[in-house]
């Protein structure tokens, strides 16, 4: 029982890290195609997430709070808010979303510099 809880927490940690890092690297001014891709990715993520209860609850959250895909900032803030909804349900502290973009660095910052060059 304890081991299962640990595994579920590790999976959650890894999943949230990837989730927030993708949003923090999403374009500032996405095309319609990029907006559609992100929205689909998030809905598919909610369907394949390998914890049945979590997936079901997260799909309900997405129905109530649809992904905001207009810009990097709105997407990242939206992601922070839905994670806070999950935190709330699990009795965890609310996370401060004000520095969300700085909090999730993929370590691939030079990619953007190369594009600018
Ligand atoms: P996590 O919630 O895993 O967060 C990891 C780190 O992210 C934190 O240490 C903090 O640094 C940062 N963080 C915290 N809040 C935010 C935020 N709002 N925005 C950005 N960064 C933040 N577990 C269940 O038991 N039941 C469920 O129904 C459930 N549903 C889930 C649904 C999804 C889609 C996911 C990805 C996970 C779900 N989990 C669920 C797992 C749960 O959310 C946690 O990942 C797990 O309990 C471990 O919690 P944690 O305290 O280590 O922090």
Strand and helix map with partners:
Elements: H1 2-24, H2 32-48, H3 52-64, H4 72-89, H5 100-103, H6 109-116
Bound molecules: flavin-adenine dinucleotide.
Flavin-adenine dinucleotide (FAD) binds next to α1, α3 and α4.
Descriptive account of the structure:
The chain has 117 residues and is mainly α. It has a single domain, classed as Four Helix Bundle (Hemerythrin (Met), subunit A). Helices cover 71% and strands 0% of the residues. It contains six helices and no strands. It has helices spanning 2-24, 32-48, 52-64, 72-89, 100-103, 109-116. The protein is globular. The model has no long low-confidence stretch (mean pLDDT 93). The structure holds flavin-adenine dinucleotide. The site of flavin-adenine dinucleotide has 20 residues, from α1, α3 and α4.
Structure summarized in a few sentences:
This protein has helices at 2-24, 32-48, 52-64, 72-89, 100-103, 109-116.
What distinguishing features does this structure have?
binds flavin-adenine dinucleotide, mainly alpha, 0% strand, Four Helix Bundle (Hemerythrin (Met), subunit A), 117 residues
Number of strands: 0
Strand residue percentage: under 5%
Class based on secondary structure composition and strand pairing: mainly alpha
Number of helices: 6
- Major sheet characteristics: none
Mean pLDDT: 93
CATH class: Mainly Alpha
CATH architecture: Up-down Bundle
């Amino acid at each position: 029982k304890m081991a299962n809880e640990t595994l579920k927490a590790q999976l959650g940690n890894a999943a949230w890290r990837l989730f927030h890092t993708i949003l923090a690297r999403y374009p500032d001014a996405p095309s319609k195609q990029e907006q559609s891709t992100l929205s689909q990715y998030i809905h598919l993520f909610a369907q394949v997430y390998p914890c049945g209860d979590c997936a079901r609850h997260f799909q309900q959250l997405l129905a109530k709070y649809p992904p905001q895909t207009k810009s990097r900032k709105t997407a990242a803030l939206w992601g922070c808010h839905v994670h806070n909804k999950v935190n709330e349900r699990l009795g965890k502290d609310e996370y401060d979303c004000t520095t969300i973009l700085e909090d999730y660095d993929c370590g691939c910052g030079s990619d953007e510099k190369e594009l600018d060059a």
